[in-house]
Amino acid sequence: MREEGLSIRAVGITKRYPKNKIGLQPMSLDIKSKSFVALMGPSGCGKSTLLKCLNGDNPATYGDVYIHDLPLIENYDLVKKNIGYVPQDDIIHRELSVYSTLFYAAKLRLPDGTSNEEIDRRIDKVLKSLKLGQHDQGRHTTQKDIKQKKVRELSGGQRKRISIAVELLTEPTILFLDEPTSPLDPETIDSFLKSLRDLAQEGTTIIMVTHKPEDLNYVDEVVFLGVKGHLVYKGHPDHITSYFGVDNIIEVYSKMSDLDEVKKKYQAPSENAISFDLNPKISKNQPDSGLQQLYWLAKRYLNIKVNDFGNLLLLLLQPVIIGGLVSLVFSEFRIGVIFLTAISAIWFGVSNSAKEIVGELPIYKRERMFNLNINTYIFSKIIVLALIAFVQVVIFTFIIHYNFKINAIAEFPETYLRPFWGSVAFLFFISCSATLIGLFLSSYFSNTEKVMTVVPITLMPQIMLAGVMTKLDTGLIEILSFFTLGRWGTEGFSRIQDRYFQDNSMDLESVIVPEFNPDGYYKNDCKCETAGSLDQLGLYDGDLIDEGIIIGDVFNSLYANLLAVTVLSVIMYLLIFISLHKKDSI
What we know:
Blueprint: E1 6-17, E2 21-32, E3 36-40, H1 47-55, E4 62-67, E5 70-71, H2 76-79, E6 83-86, H3 98-109, H4 116-129, E7 135-136, E8 139-140, H5 143-148, H6 156-168, E9 174-178, H7 186-201, E10 205-209, E11 221-226, E12 230-235, H8 240-244, H9 249-255, H10 259-265, H11 290-307, H12 309-329, H13 335-353, H14 361-370, H15 374-406, H16 420-444, H17 448-464, H18 475-481, H19 485-503, H20 533-537, H21 542-546, H22 558-581
Parallel strand pairs: 3-10, 3-11, 6-9, 9-10
Antiparallel strand pairs: 1-2, 1-4, 4-5, 7-8, 11-12
């Protein structure tokens, strides 16, 4: 080893899960500075668990971990920016170019005020240190070529190195890697591990989880775990086979998969008095600017959306297709049109946002470990998604407005969606609130499949409890409707239509075309009593109020409707915050 000082020390750490499941048996170990260490062992033995205990991603249940002589848990905010961590999943957005990926990462992680020139210098440095922009997989690729490439165009090995490059931008003193060589071919592995060895020689302590025996040729030390999380060996890679009395590393794996053999080699915790390498780089971190972080998060997210042109085009086609179908199905501006318009605004918000957090969860968790503020993260999503929702609402409202204006029937020539911008504003408000519902689902569930399974279940109450499919004529149904945007969206949008005609002293019966009555509706013989949209909804039936079946006029105003939507939005925001906060490592 090149240096006697320590970067990491674990003292008596143990990891236990619910139902008394053991992740790691009690163990102690020291990691020397500027060393390249491999964590190895049979599948499921706790390699990744140990890595996460050492870096704070999933702290040990018992025992202590010290980073440069500082207790990790108590001083996490102080030492976290000196820790680099690349989990198994990519921590980079595939829609961005390599340069944009690294540039945004630098803007979000480096101190405020770091110049673009300094960022470019660091980007060039890390690309060079990881041998990106040289002969890569048999082809001559310049740094300029690599920078301009989209991440999705890179090979698995290149993506892994870009993930590491993101971590190296902040010049960490310790770098944790979880199975970085898994997606690589043998030729790429050689180049990759040599670049890691060079990093260690330059001063970065590297701890790497691996299951490939050939990786031992590049590391300074190996930590080997047996099944059930037992520490069975820590030392030089050349001595591991003789220690276990076998001919090759494959036999070590086989032997350490047997619990009885593991217990014979288990190394119980010890207390070694070795001095730490006190790193002068560790000092109190300056607080990150919330506004700066919000700006770069929102800009990066907008860039991601714009670069994913195919998906963006589909989002903008939604209002065209749905608006076209509504125009095709309905020949008159009825209460059903108002209902579907409100539901469409809800659909835009939920569908736009339902995959936006869960789809980048590894990236979120890593950035949260470093310095990401939950509120700025949520607001960055809301800003960009609100912009998309606004465009969708304008397109949809335009189609509905002009279709029923141009094709108005003779009996009701003034009956079509109005006012245009007032309707846009209200539908945009509803869509933004629905965006929060989608973000909550995305933050709560652990994978995209679960989210997309729950989305229809979330949308069905919005449809069923809006007061159009069936009347809200029992207390329980009415109360349930109070918790849906479908009810408030349909009711509020109806009020806007009614208010426009009232404010302009127009005949209330012209607001919408009446629904079918028992005798039928005929264009040349209108048989109806009222065409007020709110009256047709019948949400405040006087007879039901007098009988005490429904609550009554508590929410019987547009301001009350807006307040109800605002309250639901605040609740959703808090639920998003709580869900994201629960994902915190420490």
